[in-house]
Amino acid sequence: MKNQEKLAVVICNHNKGTSTVDCIASILASGPDSDGGLQIFVVDNASEDDSEAVITAAYGDRITFTRSDTDLGSGGGLNLGIEQALRSGFEYICCLGEEISAAPGALRIMLDYMASTPSAGLVGGKIYHRHMPHYIQQFGISVDFKHCRASMLYADTPDSETIPNIVYCDAISSCCVMVRADAIRRVGLMPTGNFLYWDDTEWGYSIKQAGYEVVAIGAAHFYHAASPMHRCDNTKVNYYMTRNCMNFFMKYTKPEACNKMSIVLLRSVFEAFYLHRMGHAHNMAQSDISALLDALGGVRGQAADDRILENDDNGLGFVSFFQEQESVYMEDDDPFLEQVIRQINPDIVFMQLPSPGAVTIIRCDSILGIKDFSFSLDFSENVVYIDKSYRMLATREDVDLIKSYEPSLQLFLYAMQPMVFRRIAEMHGLENCVGL
After folding, report:
1. CA 330 to CA 333: how far, in whole Å?
2. Smallest Cα–Cα separation from 346: which of 369, 373, 365, 322?
3. Would you state the pLDDT for residue 326?
């Protein structure tokens, strides 16, 4: 193996020692390591469990282990290992999440592509759901400035020959990304102001803006343990996702598009707030507003303690609802949703035709966008709507709240949009951005 093809792998562990051990095992099995060209850097990011003992007992003589006694966030933890790899002279560095496992040859495929393609700054693989390995979890990230969101490409899609082998995208998830050292030297380390979430999206976008290609390779297979129905015990995911999304688009949107962008961002936050209010998830609703106010106030880094609360969101009863059902009928075929429901209730029966004893499921983009409630069946008992985020509308109370959504949104936009304009002006050194 040529010297310039030597690879450093960086794993940031936080309270998942056993998963990290499994990840390391898959790396060593995947290669490349035929002539000692692979070095693994493990950063323990202020774990409060026995992670250090578990990891070092299994692979202490095979890895470079570093512990931070302070929680540095995902980007900050990875940066510790990345800096070590840069000082050691590695030209290619691969960041992997603790709950990722690599298929045989996956790292070699990514490394060969990067070594043979000087224009590639970031390379990722095709990541599958570990519990449903025929379904793609993500295959690159696309940044959508029109709708102010970042989307995991091909998420929850069954793998097939129709999916391209090479996907050119805007960013790659830090749970599985290989980066060229020259790209890091040009744009800097992973941004740490986000603390959690959106750091990889911002990093990838910056590397692409610097002129590098960002590419996901379909032949490099990885498996991720995270479930689409995983529920975090606190509100940190909601808080950081909301705050950092707002910061990203206020920072990178062109000034002439700021008016439209502000409406899209505020509508997104209010939609989440309203859905949490519908589900009586008061802590999550508070988290939405806290994230909004902190984004407008320029708050970065780790959130104050009072911002992260206990998660009281039950997904509008999605799990408990299907645990109680004996049979359902889906108006449109949705194999992935069927798999999710079967994991919740293995005994549930999926009917081929509508039945008086079965609940009819209607899919929609967002339950807040429903306008027509004149379905022929008795809505409150026999029909439920489920949107792309697994939010469910199933009661008359829900219907009444949805009918009040649009006028409530307009009042919110009227009150908050001037604050967004002021923050954008501060970030870009403008006197104001109204009317741009």
Report:
1. 6
2. 322
3. 93
Identity at 137, one-letter amino acid code: Q
- Per-residue pLDDT of 378-393, as tens digits, reads 444 588 888 887 788 8
- The Cα 137–Cα 159 span in angstroms is 10
Radius of gyration of the chain (CA): 23
Closest by CA to 271, choosing from 402, 137, 156, 160, is 402
Over range 152-164, report the average pLDDT.
95
Beta strands in 268-333 (DSSP E): 327-330
140-144 own/partner pairs: CB under 8 Å, 24+ apart? 140/167, 140/168, 140/169, 140/170, 140/171, 140/172, 140/214, 140/215, 140/216, 141/169, 141/170, 141/171, 141/172, 141/173, 141/200, 141/201, 141/204, 142/169, 142/170, 143/170, 143/171, 143/201, 143/205
Rounded distance, CA 365 to CA 284, Å? 21
Q: Which residues have CB under 8 Å from 375's CB, separation 6+?
A: 360, 362, 383
Do β-strands 92-96 and 7-13 pair in parallel, antiparallel, or remain unpaired? parallel
| Residue 4 pLDDT > 50 | no
What residue has token string 């050194």?
Answer: 429
What integer pLDDT is reported at residue 33 of this predicted model?
A: 62
Choice among 48-52, 68-72, 230-234, 270-274 with the minimum mean pLDDT: 230-234
Give the pLDDT confidence score for residue 164 in this predicted structure: 97
Cα–Cα distance, 87 to 77 (Å, whole number): 16
* 373, amino acid identity: F
**Residue 28 vs residues 4, 15, 104, 195, 375: alpha-carbon distances, Å:** 20, 22, 9, 29, 56
Q: Please, are residues 239 and 196 in contact by the beta-carbon 8 Å criterion?
A: no
**Residue 157 β-bridge partners:** 136
Output phi, psi for 154, to 5 deg.
60, 25
User: What is the reported pTM?
Assistant: 0.86
Mean pLDDT over the full length of the chain:
91
- Summarised one tens digit per residue, pLDDT across range 282-332 is 999 999 999 999 999 999 999 999 999 999 886 546 788 888 899 999 988
The helix or strand, by DSSP H or E, that contains position 141, with its residue range, turns out to be: strand 141-144
Q: Evaluate if residue 232 carries a pLDDT over 50.
A: yes
β partners of residue 159: none
Contacts of 407 (CB under 8 A, 6+ apart): none
